[in-house]
Structures
1.
Amino acid sequence: MPAHRPAFPPSSPCRRPAPRGRWRAAIGAALLGLAAAAPAAAQAPLPTIALDARLRDDAGIRLGDTIAIAATPDGPARRMVVAAFARRTADPSEVARAEYKVRLHLADLQALLAYGDRVDRFAVVTRDSGATDRVVAGINARAFGFRAHRSRDIAVETGRTFAVINRFHRAIGVITILASAIFLLCIMLLRVEERRREVATLRLIGLSRRTVVRAILVEATAIAVLGAALGTGLGWAVSQVVNRYYQGLYRTPLVFSLVTGEVVALAVALSAGLGVGAGWLAARRVVGRPPLALLGR
Amino acid sequence: MRVALAVASLARHRTRTALAVAGIAVASAMLLDMVMLSSGMRLSFRELLDTRGYQVRLSPKGTLPFATEATVGDAAALVAAARAQPGVAVVAPNLGAQLVAPRGDGAVTVAALGVEAGVQGDYALREGRDAAAGELVASPAALAALGRRVGDTVSLGTGWDPQLRAFRELAPRRIVGVGRFYFLGADQPVVAMPLADLQATADGARRDRISSAMVRLAPGAEPAAVARALAAALPRVSVLTTADAVAQADERVAYFRNLAFILGSVSLAVGFLLVTTLMTVSVNERIGEIAVQRALGVQARRIVQQVVAEGLALSVAGGLLGLGLGLVTARYLDAILGDFPGLPPDIAFFVFQPRDAGTAMGLLVVAGTLAGILPSWRAARLPIAATLREEAVA
């Protein structure tokens, strides 16, 4: 191995940009090409490779093992030493992809693919956002045959899948809220109806309709807030279960369900609002009837 | 008589009953949607794979068809060997690649499929004819991206050479048809051309190579048995039956199936709770009435049946309303998920089957029946004299 080419650090996620395009061919081939091989010859160090940590778990490969890897299933294989295992990054676009990823030094991959002195893309780090705009404009104006894109523009494009998922979740949320609103209204109506004799008595001893409505509203608010608090706790617990389950299923550190302050505030506001609204409607309905009618006379 | 009593009891509190039915309808709509979602993708994907009657797929060893850019060499020999296998009727090889066409200051990238026109199963012709040498069939999205129509000629190359500052292997090809491509997104620019034409690109790097092949079986042949024989005869490829492909796709969309299960369960629980609450309150309100019925000689069993009938009536009414609502919301949700980039046009997430409606209704009926049992059992076991006395005092 040339002195200027370091081995992959045998820990932590590899930070190289995710390769695509023909890279994928190598990954697909890697599934086939990986096989235990004879120990590397001492006098000719083999190139190093970083493997997907899932592959380590599935194939029982260890650091220092030598594997054979080919660009195509029937292509010539090259032996490499496993120098690192890379954990999957929390990238939503990779969640449903089952194939393993391996990382090679650029020159090794170019040689394996007979790709020549070519790359698919460059990643450029700029000093600040102003410099980014200047660099993008400069490259696009001068570098004939190249096209520069801001990372955030690419993120928007690749985020289209998740925009669809978000819309789907939002639609499901609206249906859930509708069902909850009807459920709450029904429960509040039942609670108030159940106490119609009590309400009639309060009215008969001189309490105004407004006072009765307010009393019911206070009760409805208390129930709604208590329910919202319990729901928040339950939601947090469910969120933990969901994350554990999907992280295990997809073997990814990606967080699937995130309970933020904003989400809690929205849930509590919605529950409280719905509860109070349902209570108010139910109260208006019961105080609109004469007290004696409420007593069944 | 029991049904009439149950209906009368529900009609006594119309607002409450209407709200309960509405709540159950929304829960049942969600339940139906989730039942449809849980099986819809599998069904839809299976139908997509079966569109042209190809039951087995071959792809480079260790890969899924078109999941990577891997190809397999000695394709002619491979296809010939596959065609020679017993039970194999047709083998349709194909090669996938990307081509570019200069347009204005930039270039348009299109997905290209190399196919054998007589046996291909990748697209259906919508207009024109299949492509001969030097010709291609384009998707509507490709025509739009290229700014061309049927009959026009378009120059396609294999990439950009920054050193020469020119497109590599730029060659004119005539557009002779418009196709609807089954396995690629409706918004994806794609062209199909003779396999030999595409194999001749990339400076010979694609010569005699294919990305995958589809196999149609002879009548009566068993896909699993033919797949086993193909796998044994062709060690360089992975052999996948439609059932295997559906199972693999199932793993990828486990998120939606799990979501469907969770939301379906929650919907059922909400419906159950709603009916239970309503029936409990309803029975509590009618304690005196039930005690009188019991005092008059009505059997406890009859009381239980009447209360259960009420719960059942609510569930059935809400469920029927929910079926219609569920179909409308399923269409809306399917339209949202249909916007997934690259999704084949024939893939649907929510597929209605009468069995799904039956499952949703059946679950609701069971939930409604169970929801009525506990309150009715309590009502039927009330001590008659004590209850009558308490009610009279109240």
2.
Amino acid sequence: MSVDLALPANVSCPLNELVLVDDDALTIEIVSWILKKGTHDSHLFTNTGAALSYLKLNTPRLLIVDFYMPEMTGLDFISDLYESTNLEHTKIYLCSAVRPPRDSVERFADMNVDMLDKQLICDRSKLTELLDRHLAES
Amino acid sequence: MKSDSAVPNDESQQHGLAGVDESRPEAGKRPEIDRNASSHDLRASLAIVNGFSAALGASFQDLSDQYSEIIELESDKISTESTDRLMMLDADCRFCLSRLRTSIDQLKHRLATEHEILNPGQLSDSEQ
């Protein structure tokens, strides 16, 4: 998948927000419900193409990407993004309910990417704690 | 907070799994990823069910507390803010209950898919 965008990403000042990419609409809905109770800014995507377009123009402080998506894996998504965007100031998590295949684990071990259990982002207190840790109050 | 246009609205969610994309890449092309994806979907559904269940519990507790607070007040001392909050919490409970039902339907669907992968050709318990 390629998305051609002329404008460079804003790498010097990452947006104080969460970007979540997950093909599962119910996951997006529960995270959306949790975020509605808090004060943090966010953009949530079920579509990888739309997410890539957004992320090539905007650099968030926190990026969570589902590993298993039908169009591309989360790792392929992040690899694609790495080629066109400076993610130096972005904390990136790959989210999965199971451990990804070994070759994938080796790939993201070389990048600034940590794993996150799917259970965590569906839990209000744990997700809020994660957001508070990575995002300043907006 | 903003969501992209692919997120189903309330109307689509009233019809079972409408808006929930269950499609996966063609089987056999990425066997390990496909197998893990099925397992992932199943566990993800459990996480979502747990999440909405906890959210419903918390919302109902808040609703109950707010209701108790209001009924102890004399009618002329009940503020608009209190009743607005009561209605908001009621809406939260309805939303969580609706999504809990949808996520349980999704879990049942994914359990049947997992059963088909593990036992090709056999009917799952829910289909017999």
